[in-house]
Amino acid sequence: MVIQFKQVICRLGDQQFCFNVQIPVGQVVAIMGSSGAGKSTLLNLLAGFIQPQSDSAQILLNGQRVDQLEPSQRPVTSLFQEHNLFAHMSVFNNLALGIRASLKLTIDETAQVETALVQVGLKGLGARLPKQLSGGQRQRVALGRALVRRKPLLLLDEPFSALDPALRQEMATLVKRLSEQHQLTVLLVTHEPKDVLKLAETVVFIANGGVHWQGSSQDFLHQKDNHIKAYLGQSC
Fold first, then answer.
1. Closest by CA position to 142, among listed 118, 161, 159, 129
2. Is the model's pTM score more than 0.85?
3. Which of 44, 120, 148, 216 could bond 98 through an S-S bridge, CB–CB 3.0 to 4.6 Å?
4. What is the CA radius of gyration of the chain?
5. In what order do the strands lie in the sheet with 28-32?
6. Are 145 and 98 in contact (CB under 8 A)?
7. Burial of 147 (0-12, 13-18, 19+ CB in 10 A)
8. Whole-number Å distance between alpha carbons of 154 and 85
9. What angle do CA 142, 143, 148 make, to 5 degrees?
10. Which pLDDT does position 178 carry in this prediction?
11. d(Cα 106, Cα 124) in Å, to the nearest integer?
12. What is the pLDDT of residues 114-148, one digit of tens each?
């Protein structure tokens, strides 16, 4: 079972991107590459925030096309560096928004939110406002909201970049555990080789508007490819 991009072309400004790639599901996949290479573009195409500009483009999940679906209909949840929490709402209600915009939850849905709070380490903090939380805790709220949506694909666009090293490692451990517990496919945009070692089984390396290399995380960190060695700061 795979995520497939077939002749997916789009243009942003004066840069053109073309993606032809098969990405395995059921694991954490690191999306890496230099700034502006197209990492976020790949995620936004999958989420439906950007539309392909080629008539032959297809984006498929397990053989089923998703590129013709509206973003809200796709089996995808996106989490960005900006947590997108509502400052005037409690932690509980920020999670509940992932289920119902009206916040009118059933008993089962209320229990679902409470379970998610426990799973992301926020038990007992449901009544607090985002401003009463640390940066790491706010990131946990956003992750909890992603969990309650129960979508099989979780797209993380540099979600840990604003965290200090200790919190970054803590969140990486949490994402790994939750991805295994909920059988999620996680696509993680990151610049950090440490994230690759901690989280990812597979790396997709983006360069020059397309997929330059794909393979295991261990192979990536020991690559002899000049593009990758330069990216990792190794001598060519």
1. 159
2. yes
3. 148
4. 18
5. 76-80, 153-157, 185-189, 28-32, 202-207, 210-216
6. yes
7. buried
8. 17
9. 100
10. 85
11. 20
12. 999 998 889 999 999 999 998 888 888 988 998 89
Amino acid at site 72? S
Do 75 and 1 contact (CB within 8 A), yes or no? Answer: no
Torsion of CA 127, 133, 136, 140, to 10 degrees: 10
Confidence band of 236 (pLDDT split at 50, 70, 90): low
**116 within 8 A of 125, measured Cβ to Cβ:** no
pLDDT on residue 81: 60
C-alpha dihedral sign at 87, 90, 91, 97 = negative
Predicted pLDDT of residue 6: 96
Query: Which amino acid, residue 89?
Result: M
Report d(CA 71, CA 212) in Å as an integer: 27
